[in-house]
C-alpha cells in the first residue's frame, strides 16, 4: 500500500473539531496517522485536493448490478470502479444475478473484488431460485457474508415462508428484506394508480398493493420477533404503519429510492420510460412526505436503487419497457440538491448502523474511509446512453469526486 498526504480539504463532519475547516490528512497504508493544517510532506505521495470537501465514506445499501450472469449490461469491475469514483466506499449488492445467491458458495464469486477501494456487501436470496416457495440456505449465506436476505423486486406471497424466514434468521440476527408488493393487486400495472394513470390510459398499481404487504409482514413480525427491512417504501399508508411499528418497539427498518424522492408523477406525462420505476413514482404530496420521513428517521435509508438496464430494455413503448433505471452516478448530487451536503452525508452513514458495521471516523488511528466532493455550479448530467439514465439532463451544484478506502485512492 502507498502512503498519502491529502492536502487542502474542507472537512464536513458535524461535531468534529475541524468541521467546516481546511485540513490535511496523512495516511499510512489504510490508516489515518495525522490530521492538521499545513502538514509538511514526508515520504508520502502528495495529493492536492484544494477546493474539495471530505467526509466519512458513504454507503449505498441497495444496488443492482449485472454480474455474474448479465455481463452484456455491465461488467462488475467497471461498475465498482465507477461507484468508488462517485464517492461510495460501501454498497449493498442486491441478488439480481445468475446464478442467484441462494447458497453461500455463490457469494464466493465476489471475493475476487475484495482488494478494490470499495466494500461489496452482498444480499442473499430469501427463497430458493427466487421462486418464493422454499427457504434459501440462510445460515449458509450468513456464514458466507450475506448482510440480509430478499427476493429482488418480488413480494413473497407465501405467508408461511415469510413467517419461517423471520423465525429461522433470529439465532444469527439475520435481517429479512421485504419488497412490499402484492403481485395480484399490482397485476399488469406500470405506474401508480390515480389521476395521471387514468389520464394517460396506463394501467395503475394501487397504493394498497404496497401497504397491504407492509401490514401483513408487520403482523408476522409481532408474532415471531426478528428483524424486517422494507425496501422501497412509497405510500403514505406504509409510512403510517412503519411509524407505529417503530413506536411499538418492533425491529423494523425501511428504505426509499432516490428516484422516488427526487421526481413526482408529472414526469410521466411524456411517456418517458426512464421514469418507469418499481415501485412507481407518485404524487408531489407523497414525495414530500417521503422526504420528511427520511429526515425524521421513519425511513432509515435512502438508496440509489440503481438497476443496470440496457437501451434495448428501455427504448420501447412505455408499457413494454423494463422497470428501473441507472442512478448510481448521480445519487449523491441528487440527494444534496434535496437536503444539502451536510445532511446528505449524515444520512449516507445510516447504513453502517443498520448492518452492524463500524461507522467511518476521521481521526488519528482510524481506518481511512473517506468520500470526496466539490461544488460545481450548474453541472448537467449527460450520458452516452441517455435512455437508461434516470437523471439525464438534470442540473446539480455539487458533484462527487472520489473516495479513499482499503488503502486505495480513487478519484474521478
How would you characterize this protein structure?
By secondary structure, the chain is an alpha/beta fold. It has 2 domains: 3-54 and 362-411, Urease, subunit C, domain 1 (Roll); 58-354, Metal-dependent hydrolases (TIM Barrel, Alpha-Beta Barrel). It has helices at residues 76-85, 104-107, 138-143, 159-168, 183-186, 195-200, 208-224, 236-248, 258-262, 284-296, 311-314, 331-339, 341-347, 350-354; strands spanning 3-11, 22-28, 31-36, 45-48, 53-56, 58-64, 88-93, 119-122, 176-178, 191-192, 204-205, 228-230, 252-257, 301-303, 306-307, 370-380, 395-405, 408-411. The strands form 4 sheets. Strands 1, 2, 3, 4, 5, 16, 17 and 18 form an 8-stranded mixed beta sheet that branches. Strands 8-7-6-15 form a 4-stranded parallel beta sheet. Strands 9-12-13-14 form a 4-stranded parallel beta sheet. Strand 17 (395-405) and strand 18 form a beta hairpin. The longest helix has 17 residues, at 208-224. It is globular and about 65 Å long. The protein starts with a strand and ends with a strand.
Low-confidence residue ranges: none
Number of strands: 18
| Largest sheet, strands/sense/barrel | 8 strands, mixed
Instruction: Characterize the overall form.
Output: globular
**Helix/strand class:** alpha/beta
Rg measurement, Å: 21 Å
Number of domains: 2
User: Superfamily at the CATH H level of the largest domain?
Assistant: Metal-dependent hydrolases
Q: How far do the termini sit from each other?
A: 20 Å
Mean pLDDT: 96
Strand content: 15-25%
* Number of helical regions: 14
> What is the CATH topology of the largest domain?
TIM Barrel
Q: Briefly, what CATH class of the largest domain?
A: Alpha Beta
Helical amount? 25-40%
Under the CATH scheme, the architecture of the largest domain is: Alpha-Beta Barrel
Amino acid at each position: 500500500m502507498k502512503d498519502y498526504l491529502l492536502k487542502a480539504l474542507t472537512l464536513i463532519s458535524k461535531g468534529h473539531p475541524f468541521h467546516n475547516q481546511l485540513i490535511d490528512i496523512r495516511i499510512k497504508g489504510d490508516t489515518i496517522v495525522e490530521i492538521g493544517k499545513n502538514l509538511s510532506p514526508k515520504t508520502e505521495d502528495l495529493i492536492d485536493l484544494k477546493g474539495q470537501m471530505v467526509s466519512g465514506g458513504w454507503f449505498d445499501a441497495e444496488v443492482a448490478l449485472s454480474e455474474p450472469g448479465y455481463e452484456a449490461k455491465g461488467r462488475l469491475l467497471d461498475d465498482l470502479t465507477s461507484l468508488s469514483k462517485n464517492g461510495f466506499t460501501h454498497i449493498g449488492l442486491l441478488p439480481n444475478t445468475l446464478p442467484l445467491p441462494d447458497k453461500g458458495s455463490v457469494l464466493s464469486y465476489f471475493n475476487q473484488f475484495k482488494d478494490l477501494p470499495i466494500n461489496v456487501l452482498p444480499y442473499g436470496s430469501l427463497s430458493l431460485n427466487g421462486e418464493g416457495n422454499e427457504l434459501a440456505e440462510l445460515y449458509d449465506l450468513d456464514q458466507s457474508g450475506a448482510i440480509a436476505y430478499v427476493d429482488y423486486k418480488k413480494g413473497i406471497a407465501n405467508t408461511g415462508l415469510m413467517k419461517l424466514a423471520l423465525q429461522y434468521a433470529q439465532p444469527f440476527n439475520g435481517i429479512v428484506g421485504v419488497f412490499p408488493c402484492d403481485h395480484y393487486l399490482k397485476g399488469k400495472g406500470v405506474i401508480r394508480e390515480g389521476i395521471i394513470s387514468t389520464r394517460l390510459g396506463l394501467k395503475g398499481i394501487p397504493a394498497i398493493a404496497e401497504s397491504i404487504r407492509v401490514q401483513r409482514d408487520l403482523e408476522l413480525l409481532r408474532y415471531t420477533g426478528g428483524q424486517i427491512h422494507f425496501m422501497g417504501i412509497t405510500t403514505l399508508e406504509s409510512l403510517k404503519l412503519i411509524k407505529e411499528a417503530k413506536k411499538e418497539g418492533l425491529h423494523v427498518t425501511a428504505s426509499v429510492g432516490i428516484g422516488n424522492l427526487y421526481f413526482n408523477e408529472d414526469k410521466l406525462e411524456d411517456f418517458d420510460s426512464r421514469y418507469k420505476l418499481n415501485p412507481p413514482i407518485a404524487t408531489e404530496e407523497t414525495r414530500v412526505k417521503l422526504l420528511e420521513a427520511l429526515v425524521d428517521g421513519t425511513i432509515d435509508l435512502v438508496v440509489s436503487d440503481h438497476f443496470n438496464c440496457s437501451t434495448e430494455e428501455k427504448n420501447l413503448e412505455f408499457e413494454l419497457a423494463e422497470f428501473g433505471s441507472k442512478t448510481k452516478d448521480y445519487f449523491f448530487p441528487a440527494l444534496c440538491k434535496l437536503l444539502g451536503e451536510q445532511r446528505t452525508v449524515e444520512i449516507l452513514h445510516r447504513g453502517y448502523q443498520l448492518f452492524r458495521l463500524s461507522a467511518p471516523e476521521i481521526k488519528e488511528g482510524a481506518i481511512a474511509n473517506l468520500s470526496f466532493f466539490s461544488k460545481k455550479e450548474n453541472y448537467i448530467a449527460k450520458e452516452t446512453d441517455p435512455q437508461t439514465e434516470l437523471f439525464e439532463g438534470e442540473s446539480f451544484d455539487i458533484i462527487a469526486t472520489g473516495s479513499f478506502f482499503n488503502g486505495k485512492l480513487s478519484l474521478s
